[in-house]
From TrEMBL:
Species for this entry: Stutzerimonas tarimensis
InterPro entries assigned to the protein according to its UniProt record, in alphabetical order: Aldolase_TIM, Di-Nase_FeMo-co_biosynth, DiNase_FeMo-co_biosyn_sf, Elp3/MiaA/NifB-like_rSAM, MoaA_NifB_PqqE_Fe-S-bd_CS, Nase_CF_NifB, NifB_C, rSAM
Taxonomy, superkingdom: Bacteria
Pfam families registered for this protein in UniProt: Nitro_FeMo-Co, Radical_SAM
Keywords: 4Fe-4S, Iron, Iron-sulfur, Lyase, Metal-binding, Nitrogen fixation, S-adenosyl-L-methionine
Family: Belongs to the radical SAM superfamily. NifB family.
Cofactor list: [4Fe-4S] cluster
Pathway given in the UniProt record: Cofactor biosynthesis; Fe-Mo cofactor biosynthesis
Entry protein name: FeMo cofactor biosynthesis protein NifB
Radical SAM core domain boundaries: 53-302
Physiological role: Involved in the biosynthesis of the iron-molybdenum cofactor (FeMo-co or M-cluster) found in the dinitrogenase enzyme of the nitrogenase complex in nitrogen-fixing microorganisms. NifB catalyzes the crucial step of radical SAM-dependent carbide insertion that occurs concomitant with the insertion of a 9th sulfur and the rearrangement/coupling of two [4Fe-4S] clusters into a [8Fe-9S-C] cluster, the precursor to the M-cluster.
C-alpha cells in the first residue's frame, strides 16, 4: 500500500529558486541566469556551484555530538553519515574553540568562504552549541558564509533562529517521502521525549523535513537536499523525492552513494547491503536531472573537513597549533576580499569562455554539416583552479567529464590510491595502478600534466588513451579539444565504437 505523506497537490508549490532550466545551480555560466541575490549566495559556495569548488574551500567544525534519530547507515561511534564519509571520527570542539579554529583557517586559507556544521551528530539536535558557534562567527567573521546540514527532525523549530543568524544555506537529508520506505532506513526517532519506531517514526520525520523545507524556502534560504542512494531500498523512489523537493523550491539535489562496510559496524554494513555502482549513481542523477538541479561533485567530507572539496588540511589546524598562531582577523579580511575578487574575475572570464565554447562545440567533420557524435567520458587529474595540473601518479581522485556534441559537462569524481607513493617492493604500486585503471572504467582518455611510461602502457592496454598535451590548460577547453581531435581522427565514427578493452 502506498503511504506517501506527500500528495500530488502539496507538490504543486511554485519553485522559488528562480531557476527553471533543470540544470542550473551547479555551474557558473548557468548561474548567470539566476537573480542577483541568489547568484551572490552561490557563486563562492563550493558545494552549491560546481565551478566554485575548483577555487573556494569550505571547513566544518565538529561541535554537535548528539543525534535525535537513527539511520541504518550510521554508527554513532563515527560522524553523521548524512554528510560525511562513514567510518570517520572527528574530535569534538566547544563553540569557542570552533570560532578560534575558523578564524585561524580563514587567515591562512583566504579561499575558505564557507563554514559548515555537519556533525558529528545532528547540528539542530544540539541547538545551543550550534547557534552559539554561528552567533559568534556572524559577529567576528562576517565575510564567512554559514551553512548547516540536518536530518530535518528539529528543523521547523530552528528556522527562525537560522534566519536570525543570516544562514543562507541549509542542507536537509531526505531519503524518502514514503513512510514505508523510511521504515527500512530509520529504525527509530526520538521525538517529544519518546522513542518512536517503524513507519510511524518515518512519517513524523518526513512531515518535519517537508515542513522545514517549505519554511526555509518561504524565507528565501537556499535549500540543498541530500539523499543517500540505497540500492533496492530507495533507488527508484528517489525520482519522486527529487520531483517533490524541486516543486517545493529546493535549490539543489545531491544524490550520494551509500557507503556500507561491515567494519563500520552499521546495520546496512553488517547486513551486507550493497553500495551503488558509479553507473547506477550517474543514471539516477541523470534521471532526476529532468526535474532538478543536481550536485555531482560532493565528496562526502568529514564533520571536521578543511580545504577544497576532496582535500583535507585538518592536520594543519589542530588546537595546539592554533593556540600558537597570531591571528589579525581584520587584516586577513582585507587579504581575503582581494583574493575573492580576483577569483570572481577569473570565474566570470571562465563563464564567458564556456559560453563561447558551447557555441563552438558542435564540430563539423571534413567540411560536412554539423553532425552528432557519441559522447565520450574523459578523466582529468587536477589539483584545483579548474586546470589540468596534476601528475597522473599523484592523483588521489580523477574528475570525470563527458564531452559530446552539446559541450562538456562534469559527471563525477572517482577516488584512487596514489600509485607513485606506493611501496614498490611489496607490489602495492602495481595494485594501486591497476586499481586506478579499474576505477576509470568507461573513460576513453585521461588528461594529466605528466605521466610515466609504465602507466602509459597499462592505460593504453586497458583502452584508455593517456594525454599529457594539455598541461595547465582549463579543463573544459582541454576536454573539448581532445574530443575534437578524436572526431578529426575518425575515432568516433559509427563503425568505430568505444575501444574494446574499455567497453
Ligand atoms: Fe559543508 Fe554541506 Fe555546507 Fe558544503 S559539505 S555543510 S553544503 S559546506 Fe559539500 Fe561536503 Fe558534499 Fe556536504 S561536499 S559532504 S555537500
Ligand atoms: Fe547518524 Fe546523522 Fe543519521 Fe544521526 S542523522 S543517525 S548522526 S547519519
Amino acid at each position: 500500500m502506498e503511504l506517501s505523506v506527500i500528495g500530488q497537490n502539496e507538490a504543486e508549490h511554485a519553485a522559488a529558486s528562480g531557476c527553471s532550466s533543470g540544470s542550473c545551480g551547479s555551474s557558473d555560466d548557468q548561474l548567470s541566469h539566476l537573480p542577483d541575490d541568489i547568484r551572490e549566495k552561490v557563486h563562492n559556495h563550493p558545494c552549491y556551484s560546481e565551478d566554485a569548488h575548483h577555487y573556494f574551500a569550505r571547513m566544518h567544525v565538529a561541535v554537535a555530538p548528539a543525534c535525535n534519530i537513527q539511520c541504518h547507515y550510521c554508527n554513532r561511534k563515527y560522524d553523521c553519515a548524512n554528510e560525511s564519509r562513514p567510518g570517520v571520527v572527528s574530535e569534538l570542539m566547544t563553540p569557542d574553540q570552533a570560532v578560534k579554529k575558523v578564524k585561524a583557517v580563514a587567515a591562512t586559507i583566504p579561499q575558505m568562504t564557507v563554514l559548515g556544521i555537519a556533525g558529528p551528530g545532528d547540528p539542530l539536535a544540539n541547538p545551543e552549541r550550534t547557534f552559539d558557534t554561528f552567533r559568534q562567527l556572524s559577529e567576528q567573521a562576517p565575510d564567512i558564509k554559514l551553512c548547516v546540514s540536518t536530518n530535518g527532525l528539529a528543523l521547523p523549530d530552528a528556522v527562525e533562529e537560522l534566519a536570525k543568524h543570516n544562514i543562507d544555506h541549509v542542507t536537509i537529508t531526505i531519503n524518502c517521502v514514503d513512510p514505508e520506505v523510511g521504515a527500512k532506513i530509520y529504525p527509530w526517532i526520538y521525538w517529544n521525549n519518546k522513542r518512536i519506531r517503524g513507519a510511524k517514526a518515518a512519517k513524523i520525520l518526513i512531515e518535519r523535513q517537508q515542513k522545514g523545507l517549505e519554511m526555509l524556502v518561504e524565507r528565501g534560504i537556499l535549500v540543498k537536499v541530500n539523499s543517500v542512494l540505497i540500492p533496492g531500498v530507495n533507488d527508484e523512489h528517489l525520482k519522486e523525492v527529487s520531483r517533490i523537493v524541486k516543486a517545493k523550491g529546493a535549490f539543489l539535489h545531491n544524490v550520494m552513494p551509500l557507503i556500507a562496510e561491515a567494519e563500520h559496524g552499521t546495520f546496512f554494513g553488517v547486513m551486507g547491503q550493497r553500495s551503488p555502482e558509479p553507473e547506477e549513481l550517474q543514471d539516477l542523477q541523470d534521471a532526476c536531472a529532468g526535474d532538478m538541479n543536481m550536485m555531482r561533485h560532493c565528496r562526502q567530507c568529514r564533520a571536521d573537513a578543511v580545504g577544497l572539496l576532496g582535500e583535507d588540511r585538518g592536520d594543519e589546524f589542530t588546537m595546539d597549533k592554533i593556540e600558537t598562531m597570531e591571528i589579525d582577523y581584520e587584516a586577513a579580511m582585507v587579504k581575503r576580499a582581494a583574493i575573492h575578487a580576483a577569483i570572481k574575475e577569473e570565474l566570470d572570464e571562465k563563464a564567458a569562455k564556456k559560453a563561447r565554447l558551447a557555441s563552438l562545440s558542435v564540430p563539423s567533420h571534413n567540411g560536412a554539416s554539423a553532425r552528432k557524435y557519441r559522447p565520450v567520458l574523459m578523466a582529468v587529474a587536477t589539483s584545483g583552479g579548474g586546470l589540468i595540473n596534476q601528475h597522473f601518479g599523484h592523483a588521489k581522485e580523477f574528475l570525470v567529464y563527458e564531452a559530446s556534441s552539446e559541450g562538456v559537462r562534469f559527471i563525477s569524481h572517482r577516488k584512487v590510491d596514489q600509485f607513485c607513493v606506493g611501496n614498490d617492493t611489496c607490489g602495492e604500486k602495481e595494485s594501486a595502478l591497476s586499481g586506478s585503471i579499474r576505477s576509470l572504467k568507461g573513460c576513453e582518455a585521461v588528461l594529466c600534466s605528466k605521466i610515466g611510461y609504465e602507466p602509459w602502457g597499462d592505460l593504453e592496454a586497458a583502452g584508455i588513451q593517456p594525454n599529457g598535451e594539455h598541461a595547465m590548460e582549463p579543463i573544459e577547453e582541454a576536454v573539448m579539444a581532445v574530443y575534437q581531435e578524436m572526431i578529426a581522427a575518425g575515432q568516433l565514427d559509427e563503425d568505430k565504437p568505444l575501444m574494446k578493452a574499455n567497453a
